[in-house]
Specification:
The protein has 333 residues and is α/β, with parallel strands linked by helices. It is 44% helix and 19% strand. The strands form two sheets. Strands 3-2-1-4-5 form a five-stranded mixed beta sheet, with helices on both faces. A five-stranded mixed beta sheet has the order 8-7-6-9-10, sandwiched between helices. It binds adenosine-5'-triphosphate (ATP) and magnesium ion.
Length: 333
Amino acid sequence: MLVLGIETSCDETSVALVREGREILSNIILSQLEHVKFGGVVPEVASREHLRAIIPVYDEAFKQAGVDLEEVDLVAATMGPGLVGPLLVGLTFAKGLAYSRSIPFVAVNHMEGHLAANILEHPELEENHLTLIVSGGHTMLVEVKKFGEYELLGQTKDDAAGEAFDKVAKIMGLGYPGGVQIDRLAREGDPKFLKLPRPMIRDDSFQFSYSGLKTAVMMQIKKMTAGEFEQHRADIAASFQEAAVDVLVEKTIRAARMKKTRDLTISGGVAANSRLREVMQRKCDQANRRLFYPSLPLCTDNAAMIAAAGYYQFKNDGPSELTANAIPYLKLV
Ligand SMILES: Nc1ncnc2c1ncn2[C@@H]1O[C@H](COP(=O)(O)OP(=O)(O)OP(=O)(O)O)[C@@H](O)[C@H]1O
Ligand SMILES: [Mg+2]
């Protein structure tokens, strides 16, 4: 089955062609640069840029895959969560295509797409596994019983982990998007330089909180002179990153023990973080768990993960109605 995936929930216009939920023929991702000067995503600008980009990105996906629309068996598009204007561009495009060519259509949950990135890339991953979804808008620990059947163990009470990376980067003047800049800078820094809290790390629940950590970094920076700040930029980045990663790893391993799941995955943009991958791998080895994470292009928003999620959703539940609408706060569970 050849699936055409379309993703436009935030500031990436992406179209992919994926065979049997696993083989990526093409996965074109256009990241909108228009938001950089604003230091964050401007929803109206994002909608317009999606409108401008969707057809060229679609054409490029077919060109790279070397297939034709006639060969497509299913159209899958993100319906939420995300920004309503951007979501509507991809969803409407997908529904129009499906209707005009009489191709079945599925409306996909973006978070299900993130977790499906691991299923796409790791055939050996057990169906029942634990996943940590860490992205720009979400921090969630979820037990995947099987595709489509989830138990939410916990999530963030305030900021998402990715949001905290972006905000700390902004405070430090590193630009947007900031997560990858912190990751890069932290490699040369001392993670013990700042004493920072590990919010909720000993707490029994699987909830997270990141806004206090961000504020703690801000307060410590405020106490520094400009010279101290300049000298210790890498140390500040490393200290923040270490605190953020410690909490994610500790809670994930504890949840895996409680749920007795052998396989663990991380997904979403923050799964690209090199320190998170390193520490999680070490702790998984110690706890006798197998860790999987997506390759870098499949961590952040992309349409291949939407095509994969759409494939499994269609196999389980059949097509969606063409009346499916964009739902900005769509839940996974
Ligand atoms: N190497 C990295 N280290 C830390 N954070 C990173 C890294 N690369 C990307 N990120 C973060 O990942 C986030 C983007 O991920 P993603 O595209 O999945 O989020 P989103 O789609 O905006 O949110 P959601 O998926 O919750 O709707 C940003 O917050 C970004 O800073
Ligand atoms: Mg995302």
